[in-house]
């Protein structure tokens, strides 16, 4: 697809390149040899300019669909279709696309997310985060005022509880295999109600990707089911 931004960038690159070479040419000392080099360089620049500024051989066809960014509005109704019925609303147990389509980012959120427009990690439940100099300790500062659907506040206790679910040997969700460093589980530590530290045995390049795949669950609702061994069956599709 043709992009006006790429064309502008290309023109800027060509202009800068030509200017740099031109300054280099006129900065040379005088003499017949220099004049010959200058003429040769100008010819090369002319050919280069033709190549870099030629028309796009595959321009965008007339009538092509162009997607424009649209800002969402608060509230309303979300409707989505899937070819197969979801098997659970439990994000920890969800292990196939028909379920994760809804549990990941719609029913539940994580500490961090991903902005598809900027292609960068973005703050979600955490308003910001810090990384230690050795690259092994991440500190997340939760947004204040976040609440579950029943009005209970979302706190660091929910994040710690979710980590217990992730690393439980009986539940053993698939994300547990991702959330390891040097063969060891990530270590979660509550600093206060709105601050959580996560330490790893060694620096993890895709750490934010992994944490963004762990969706926080409400401790005050699910702790009892976790303790009595029924967590795997809660939040079924008939909930």
From TrEMBL:
Coiled coil: none annotated. GO terms for molecular function: peptide transmembrane transporter activity. The keyword Transport applies. Pfam families: SBP_bac_5. Residues 126-224 form the Solute-binding protein family domain. Belongs to the bacterial solute-binding protein 5 family. This is Solute-binding protein family 5 domain-containing protein. The lineage of its organism: Bacteria, Candidatus Eiseniibacteriota.
């Amino acid at each position: 697809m043709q992009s006006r931004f790429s064309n502008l960038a290309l023109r800027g690159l060509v202009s800068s390149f030509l200017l740099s070479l031109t300054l280099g040419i006129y900065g040379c000392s005088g003499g017949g040899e220099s004049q010959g080099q200058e003429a040769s360089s100008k010819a090369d620049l002319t050919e280069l300019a033709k190549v870099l500024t030629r028309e796009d051989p595959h321009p965008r066809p007339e009538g092509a669909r162009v997607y424009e960014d649209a800002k969402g509005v608060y509230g309303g109704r979300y409707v989505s279709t899937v070819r197969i019925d979801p098997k659970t609303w439990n994000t920890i147990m969800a292990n196939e696309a028909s379920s994760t389509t809804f549990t990941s980012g719609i029913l539940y959120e994580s500490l961090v997310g991903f902005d598809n427009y900027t292609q960068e990690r973005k703050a979600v439940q955490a308003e910001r985060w810090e990384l230690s100099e050795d690259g092994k300790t991440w500190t997340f500062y939760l947004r204040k005022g976040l609440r579950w659907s029943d009005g209970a506040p979302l706190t660091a206790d929910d994040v710690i509880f979710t980590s217990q679910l992730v690393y439980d040997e009986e539940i053993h969700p698939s994300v547990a295999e991702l959330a390891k460093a040097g063969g060891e589980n990530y270590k979660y530590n509550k600093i206060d109600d709105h601050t959580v530290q996560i330490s790893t045995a060694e620096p993890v390049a895709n750490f934010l990707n992994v944490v963004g795949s762990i969706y926080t669950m409400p401790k005050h609702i699910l702790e009892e089911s976790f303790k009595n061994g029924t967590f795997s069956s809660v939040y079924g599709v008939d909930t």
